[in-house]
Amino acid sequence: MTESLTNKIIMVTGASQGLGKAVAIALGAAKVNVVAIARHPKNLAATQDAVEAAGGRCLCVPFDLYDFDDYGKLFLALKDQIPHLDGLVHCGGSFDRCTPLQYVKLDKFREALDIHLTAPNMLTQIMLPLLRRSESASIVFTSCDMLEEDQNNWHAYGFAKRALGYAAAMWQGEHPDKPYRFNTLNPGRVRTDLFSRAFPGLMPDVVPLPEDATDAFLFLLSDASKELRGQSLHAKDLNTGENKPN
Ligand SMILES: NC(=O)c1ccc[n+]([C@@H]2O[C@H](COP(=O)([O-])OP(=O)(O)OC[C@H]3O[C@@H](n4cnc5c(N)ncnc54)[C@H](OP(=O)(O)O)[C@@H]3O)[C@@H](O)[C@H]2O)c1
Q: Where residue 164 sits, what CATH number does that domain have?
């Protein structure tokens, strides 16, 4: 199933560690050309090595997703380096700590909204000309469903993550007849830095590794899922058994 990904060009944000890095490496194993976005060049270089060792190619683009005024410059720099984008995976994110709404500080609230809701939407908007040049681009927003028994204390992170499902539906609704598609994927809990800040008390080895969630991303990026448009999906519900790269 990953054959349809060979030689595609796919941007992954948050590619320097955690889930984004694992997705980038899995794409490398599927012979994808990865455009890796994150702030720290050294960590991006480690991702590049791993993607290339897996069999793909990797262009590292150090960029701070909070620099909204520079999104246009990012697009201009990339449009001469890559012919198109076949996929965009939004994994960039940060989270300080769970805080009840009555105590959360304005700056932390805004930061969470900006990185988890404003950034993926505005990056999608600015990259749309490159995505349009692909035959069938797939855009994946990474959500995180706040379950009823665990919905408190996430403040703007929780609001942003819930809104991403609506964002994918709205993007698709505004582009009903286009070959490109938008979906939201909840990977489930994965053992990353962000997770350990959100759940400082939880034993890390009971939580799956980021690598365990990558099949669902590859499935959504591949032609195997081309019927899925504007959906909110959970990794555990996707039948990705055949998706492991050879
Ligand atoms: N872990 C989970 O259990 C879980 C569950 C559901 C959803 N998610 C979602 O999955 C995504 C990835 O999370 P993770 O757990 O893999 O977190 P992580 O290990 O902390 O990685 C976050 C990534 O985002 C990048 N990043 C952070 N701030 C950035 C900024 N301002 N500009 C550019 N890049 C930035 C980081 O790189 P730099 O520091 O180098 O910039 C890093 O590569 C997030 O959207 C998260 O909400 C995670």
A: 3.40.50.720
